[in-house]
Amino acid sequence: MKMVSPAEWRPVGLEDLEPAAWEALKYDGNSCVVAGPGSGKSEFLAQRAAYLLQTHICPPPYRILAISYKREAAQNLQDRIVRTCSPEQSRRFASVTFDAFTVGLARRFRKALPAAWQLTPNFRVVFPDQGTIRESLRNSRLDAPGDWKAEVGGILYKTFEIYEGGSWRLPPESDQVNSGTHFALARWWLSLLAADPISTPNFILLNRLAELIQRVNPQVARALAATYKYVFVDECQDTTFAQYDFLESLFNNSGTIVTSVGDDKQRIMSFGGARPDFFAVFQADFGARRFVLRCNYRSSPSLVKLQHVLARQIDEDVPEVESRTDGLLPSSAAQMWYSVSAESELRALSSAIAKDMNLRRLVPRDYAILTRNRPDSYERQVEAAMAHEGLTVRNESRDVGGIALQDLMAQSLTRAVVPFLKLAARERDPESWISACKIVQDLRGSDYEDDPTLQRALRELNVFISGLRRDACRLSVGRENARLLAEKIIEFFDLEQTALAFPDYRDSEFLVLVKDALLFHLADSAEGATSWDAVIENFLGAGSVPLMTIHKSKGLEFDTIVLIGLDDQGWWQYSRGNVEELSTFFVAVSRAKQRVVFLYCRERGKRSKVAELYELLESAGVPWRDRR
Ligand SMILES: Nc1ncnc2c1ncn2[C@@H]1O[C@H](COP(=O)(O)OP(=O)(O)OP(=O)(O)O)[C@@H](O)[C@H]1O
């Protein structure tokens, strides 16, 4: 792909950007781009990457590092760059999650850790249970020096790691502690590092170790800053204290230019330790310029108006936003439905979805049913009602062998297997063929198109796909044979090479867990299917209406959002004025492009705790519909 001059560069795949986005895109200093839902923040990062790479403002061998909060978001960004830039350019764009990046660094530079904080060569990332933390705190209180005992005794175990751990930069020596809190933290973390036979750190500790590594080894920090000329932070409102310190130690005043994008009103990860003051602190520390975007490219004008009413409840100074999408519905885009029984509620819902799909030529994935908590508690009922209309629903949070379905689908292994399955099932599928070639290139570790290793690997791929097609023709469609095909594909990948190609799988136990979950879900997808294409469709959930929590819907968009269980039962954490809960509600509403339906069913619960939400909807003019 030839180089483009900055003046000639145009957005890829979009007509235009709003003026503030243009300004931010071309700005060559630290910046934060603050904008509401649907304003194109993720799109902006993809365009800025394309701009920097295609104009050679980020010339070879420099790279761009994009850090996202969620794996799907990181993958989505990488995919966009692969589609819009040349292979050489997209190889210089690394899109990772914060956790994957810090785990990778801790692994790579493990030996550069001070002796006191050594990790074993292999380690397993764990999510310690609250009981273990509690016990460690109890022991620390017993062993703490006299005047620290009371302080340790007062630590809340539930927030111990997130808040106390989040705000303590590790000292090079583990005994350099000057408070009871740090004494308890050091004890707890050292116990994770010393676990037998391998260390079992969690993500907070790994973040802290990664920060320490580059603080005590300036050459490591310099090498990283010299590699990454530009760093992007997506969904920066969810950055934790520990992650922020890492970012600050590594890239502030390093010559690297950092662009953060986010939306304060979508901060729904405080329970995970998101720092509430990210924008202010980042602007002050990094001398970052602030850009505010004011367009919404996702939602229709009436939905943007509704979002504004909710946004003002979270932040009364929030600016008005302009919708850049036409409203396509003749009747109210937002409605509250009242039902007496769950049965009548869901009958009305499934019949409305079936009719709407027909009328507007939509597909099941244009709809999403969102819940505040526990989608599994609605799954059966929704499934039964949808079946009456010939529709299926898929609980994206369903546990598949130890991993949530939605997370399984975002796994690198799953994403690698899918094009191979498609090639097995179809005579021609050029897009899958291109993906398969790219996967082989990644797996066999070859970077150059004229590399003989790659040529050999592609020949091997050709032979393998022909064999796989023959197998798919020969084998009847069913559970066992679906497993067999996938096992052949994974065998062709080679687990060792897979672990090397995808940093997430350095922990081989995790790779095995993902593999088993994938085989299990594929076998399930073959149940009742009459063709391999149908198996793949079931596997991907293409023909089902997704059911998921609001947290899982973050960053996604659908034509129609249905919020089920908007009552005290479903929103048991709600209390008037609770900003995090309001933000969660805001995230749900802002996923919709054209329509949002709020379901209230008397049988499910009362409306006292959540009265504020109904008052807000009524004040925004959202009408009630009787569906009893
Ligand atoms: N300049 C643009 N012109 C046309 N469409 C755009 C533009 N920017 C973004 N979009 C489209 O608008 C939608 C929302 O974009 P995107 O997901 O990037 O928004 P976001 O700000 O990251 O959203 P959120 O914070 O709500 O998850 C997408 O469908 C995207 O393709």
UniProtKB/TrEMBL annotation:
Top-level taxon: Bacteria
Reaction catalyzed: Couples ATP hydrolysis with the unwinding of duplex DNA by translocating in the 3'-5' direction; ATP + H2O = ADP + phosphate + H(+)
Residues where ATP binds: 35-42
Entry EC number(s): 5.6.2.4
Keyword Isomerase on entry: yes
GO molecular function: 3'-5' DNA helicase activity; ATP binding; DNA binding; hydrolase activity
Enzyme class: isomerase
Keyword Glycosyltransferase: no
SUPFAM superfamilies per record: P-loop containing nucleoside triphosphate hydrolases
Record key words, sorted: ATP-binding, Helicase, Hydrolase, Isomerase, Nucleotide-binding
Residues in UvrD-like helicase C-terminal domain copies: 301-555
Segments forming domain UvrD-like helicase ATP-binding: 14-300
An example Gene Ontology biological process: recombinational repair
Homology family: Belongs to the helicase family. UvrD subfamily.
Name of the protein in its database record: DNA 3'-5' helicase
Organism: Paractinoplanes rishiriensis
